[in-house]
Amino acid sequence: MNAYEVNFDGLVGPTHNYSGLSFGNVASTSNVSAASNPKLAAKQGLAKMKALHDLGFKQGVLAPHERPDVASLRLLGFGGSDAEVVARAAKEAPAILAAACSASCMWTANAATVSPSGDTADGRVHFTPANLNNKFHRSIEHPTTRRLLQAMFADESRFAVHPALPAQMHFGDEGAANHTRFCAEYDGPGVEFFVFGAAAFDARYPKPAKFPARQTLEACQAVARLHGLSAERVVYAQQDPDTIDAGVFHNDVISVGNRQVLFHHQKSFLNQQQVLAELSAKLAAAGGDFVSVEVPAAEVSIEEAVKSYLFNSQLLSRPDGKMIIVVPEECRNQPRVWAYLSKLVASGGPIAEVKVFDLKQSMQNGGGPACLRLRVALSAAEIAAVNPKVLMSDALFATLNGWVDRHYRDRLSSEDLADPQLLIESRTALDELSGILGLGSVYPFQLG
Asked: What are the backbone dihedrals phi and psi of residue 79, each rounded to the nearest 5 degrees, phi first?
């Protein structure tokens, strides 16, 4: 194999907490004000990375961001020393402080949209950081995300890291959580699948009634233009508004794809059969054979899918061509979901194995295995051009676990966010981490 899908997992940050910031994400709002365990959260994520690395999959690490985000608090009028900024925000606007402390960048499926070199007009791998405009606590991420990606993918002859789209609701962009690529081989031609919740400029498209549609059609189209994608190799689909209102805030909560396979719910998309037919036709033109694995609503309801995060899973290709599905422990705790998975792997279809991981700390905040990783298809030469210090190894796993042990708390409540020592602890940890991962100066406190 001359190309691979590399999963870059978000390393959970020191301020991981449950503040219920994500309206439309049922798990996030259900666990508001519960005490979190940042140390356990980081170790659960690292354990998944290492387990997949040990199975032979290419695995990388994407660093967390500086939190609390003092610069954003200053822009909102909180003045004084850094400690005084945090104290004043805690007293006058605790909800804003909670947003400025969110460790949501751990969900790197929202970090960016990625188009491999096999799809782009200039033959480079393209990244567009997501503006995440729908939620304040996420909208402040993209400047640091871009610096991190530039530090990881620095060779401009092979990689292009764009600025985020305009930070405005008409171009709301949630990154790879609403994007999948289908292909016969990772280094061959592919079909890029963009899923949106609503159209900003075209009233003909329906919209959800209860929860916001975070991704717009116009954002998808803009990213496709920036990446130099051919219209013959792009499919746009609208997520079913009713599923958004049922708590499916991103497409990766209702479907997941890999290579030529789309694993999805019966009620994933509007005009679903038309969408599947277009994917099949365009992938056939690119030399692939599209396979739809559709889960009937009679076997797994939307509610069960949201509770278990069945579709917020990873599909990984084994050397024999069959696929592993990586799911959270919550799937095993939902009897009908587990019964479906057991039947699925026994069916002789493309998905032949289930791997279960304990990601409870992330799941309680609304993010499963798929949320935690950004997929980047790379040729062997492109992998060689990636910053090698961010690629998982036995040594890096041991180093990062030791780093977590030194710097992370094992309990964090909403009241702890006002502790000025938390900012000092976070910056000390990230300053050391940027050296471990060879990132240079990427954080605001390092840049002055």
From this structure: -115, 180
- Going from the C-alpha of 119 to that of each of 126, 129, 240, 284, 376, the distances in angstroms are 10, 18, 27, 15, 13
For the entire predicted model, the pTM comes to 0.95
Of the candidates 5, 66, 174, 278, the residue annotated as catalytic is 174
CB 43 within 8 A of CB 357: no
Cα distances (angstroms) measured from residue 8 to each of 21, 144, 208, 340, 422? 24, 16, 31, 29, 26
What local confidence, expressed as pLDDT, does residue 374 receive?
98
Which of 250, 264, 265, 407 is flagged as catalytic? 250
Order of all β-strands in the sheet with 373-379: 59-62, 3-10, 373-379
Instruction: Indicate if the pLDDT at residue 317 is higher than 90.
Output: yes
Q: Is residue 24's pLDDT more than 80?
A: no
Beta-strand ranges (E) seen in 76-211 are 112-115, 125-129, 159-161, 179-183, 190-196
Quick check: helix, strand or coil at residue 393? Answer: coil
Place of tokens 């060689």: 384
Rounded distance between C-alpha atoms, residue 60 and residue 393, angstroms? 9
CA distance 176 to 289: 23
Q: Specify the amino acid at residue 343.
A: K
Active site residue 220: no
> Over the Cα atoms of the chain, what is R_g?
21
How far CA 337 is from CA of 62, 311, 384, in Å, comes to 31, 11, 40
- In this structure, the number of other CB atoms found within 10 A of the CB of residue 88 comes to 17
101 is catalytic: no
Contacts of 91 (CB under 8 A, 6+ apart): none
| Interhelix angle 420-436/82-92, nearest 10 degrees | 130
Coil, strand, or helix at residue 316? strand
- Torsion angle, alpha carbons of 64, 66, 68, 71, to 10: -140
Q: What are the pLDDT digits (tens) for 293-308?
A: 999 999 999 999 999 9
**Residue 211: per-residue pLDDT:** 92
Per-residue pLDDT for 89 more than 70? yes
Point out the least confidently predicted range of 22-36, 253-267, 424-438.
Answer: 22-36
Rounded to a whole number of angstroms, the distance between the first and last alpha carbons of the chain is 44
* CA-CA-CA-CA dihedral for 59, 389, 150, 3, to nearest 10: -40
Residues 7, 60 contacting (CB under 8 angstroms): yes
Average pLDDT value for the chain: 95
331 is catalytic: no
Are 285 and 316 in contact, with CB atoms under 8 Å apart? no
